[in-house]
Amino acid sequence: MRVIGLMSGTSYDGIEAAAAEFELSGETVRMRPLGRLSHPYPDQLRTRIAAALPPAPTSTEAICVLDTGIGQAFAEAGVRALGQLCDGDADLVVSHGQTMHHWVEAGVVRGTLQLGQPAWIAEATGLPVVADLRSRDVAAGGQGAPLVALLDALLLRGLPGVPAALNLGGIANITVVAPDADPLAFDTGPANALLDAAVRHFTGGTEEYDRDGCGAAAGQVNPVLLRRLLDEPYYRQSGPKSTGKELFHLPYLLAALADAATPEPNDVLATLTRLTAVTVADACRAHGVSQLVVSGGGAHNPTLMRMIADELPAVHLSSSDDLGIASDAKEALAFALLGYLTVHGLPGTLPSGTGARHASVLGSITPGRQPLRLPAPADTAPGRLLIVASPLAD
Ligand SMILES: Nc1ncnc2c1ncn2[C@@H]1O[C@H](COP(=O)(O)OP(=O)(O)O)[C@@H](O)[C@H]1O
Ligand SMILES: [Mg+2]
């Protein structure tokens, strides 16, 4: 089955599309990646997303406009992926949508809202769409995140030592796959969320992020500011746990700067980069991680990668590319896999990762142009994932 995954993370830097062929036989799922592309959000839509994100107040009118605009942008990304990655031939689209709110109270997730009306995607591509993948896990008592954990666990299982996958998006999340133990997965804290907010703030919005970590590399860590930021209770909570930009936003950073004045912007960037490295490293040390497979936009930041390596001298760092999954495509491929499991009646969550009462079949399905025909339900959940290069039969 040929599946397109569409994802935009908390950084809302654009939509990542990836396609893959999947085949399930017994405990093994084979995945053959077909490529990836990035599809930018129109400037006006990005501005609207930024304006509606917490802690800003918003209106149901703004939410309606965003649901439509994001749905249309995802539909364009889906059409491009269908043409450019799949030669016009695919079976399913899986859309994460854009998270606008992840509602956490006292460590419990009470709701999570991803916008991007899937009807636009189904209408434009003619394909059935699996969307809204997080809500069912929340309804089953889970965090609804990190959902990439299933792909990580299947991919890393069997590697030597205690392997872990780290994704450095707006938020950083880790999946630890210790031998003979259930996988653990949780958000460690901000990866780029505060860094991006600082860069936008200091440049008046002309720059979106600290390109290649140049600002942080030119600055000095302010230990007082770092200590102030590390006071955040989230870091001391044990998993399962998840967080988002509801917590780690610009006013949060400005409050810390009010307590620990740091006049030089590059020193703020250096400190925020170190904060990500320290919180990631603390999570790795707490779980005895011996090798870390990194993905996500933060993997392109050499200053961040150097600081993580400094904090974890005994841990072997590599990229998910080395395992056959392009670092920037991993989350989109993870969602493609989850939707593939959904249409086979298979769960997409690990209760040990999200904290749910049980594993759930994820998402809601919007039919495509043809009557909805689902594959026969599979009776064995996959135990391993093989990345293959040659075409699959299924
Ligand atoms: N060359 C780079 N140098 C520094 N940071 C980068 C670079 N490329 C991407 N990033 C960071 O990665 C972020 C996007 O990562 P991504 O994995 O798409 O996150 P999300 O899943 O939250 O959208 C950007 O906002 C930026 O902070
Ligand atoms: Mg992104």
Any descriptors?
single chain, 394 residues, alpha/beta, Nucleotidyltransferase, domain 5, 13 helices, 36% helix, binds adenosine-5'-diphosphate, binds magnesium ion
Q: Can you tell me the CATH topology of the largest domain?
A: Nucleotidyltransferase, domain 5
CATH superfamily descriptor of the largest domain: ATPase, nucleotide binding domain
Taking all residues together, what is the mean pLDDT? 97
State the total count of DSSP E strands. 13
Question: What structural class results from the helix and strand content?
Answer: alpha/beta
Please estimate the helix content.
25-40%
Poorly predicted runs of 5 or more residues? none
Give the SSE order as H and E letters.
EEEHHEEHEHHEEEHHHHHEHEHHEE
Described by the principal axes of the CA atoms, the overall outline is globular
Distance between the termini: 6 Å
Biggest sheet character: 8 strands, mixed
What Rg, in angstroms, do the CA atoms define?
Answer: 20 Å
Query: In total, how many domains does the architecture comprise?
Result: 2
Q: Number of helical runs? A: 13
Strand content: 15-25%
CATH architecture designation of the largest domain: 2-Layer Sandwich
Task: Report on this structure.
The chain is built from 13 helices and 13 strands. The mean pLDDT is 97. It has two domains: 2-144 and 329-387, 2-Layer Sandwich (Nucleotidyltransferase, domain 5), CATH 3.30.420.40; 149-323, 2-Layer Sandwich (Nucleotidyltransferase, domain 5), CATH 3.30.420.40. Strands 1, 2, 3, 4, 5, 6, 12 and 13 form an eight-stranded mixed beta sheet that branches. A five-stranded mixed beta sheet has the order 9-8-7-10-11. A hairpin with a 6-residue loop joins β1 (2-8) and β2. The N and C termini lie close together (6 Å). It has 394 residues and is an alpha/beta fold. The chain has helices at residues 43-52, 60-86, 118-125, 135-139, 149-156, 193-202, 214-218, 223-230, 250-259, 265-286, 302-311, 330-343, 351-354, and strands at residues 2-8, 15-25, 28-39, 92-105, 108-115, 129-131, 163-168, 171-176, 184-190, 291-295, 316-319, 364-366, 384-387. Bound molecules: adenosine-5'-diphosphate and magnesium ion (MG). Residues 8-9, 11, 13, 297 line the site of magnesium ion. Adenosine-5'-diphosphate is lined by residues 9-11, 13, 169-170, 192, 195-196, 209-213, 296-298, 300-301. GO terms for molecular function: kinase activity. Pathway: Cell wall biogenesis; peptidoglycan recycling; Amino-sugar metabolism; 1,6-anhydro-N-acetylmuramate degradation. InterPro entries: Anhydro_N_Ac-Mur_kinase, ATPase_NBD. Its EC number is 2.7.1.170.
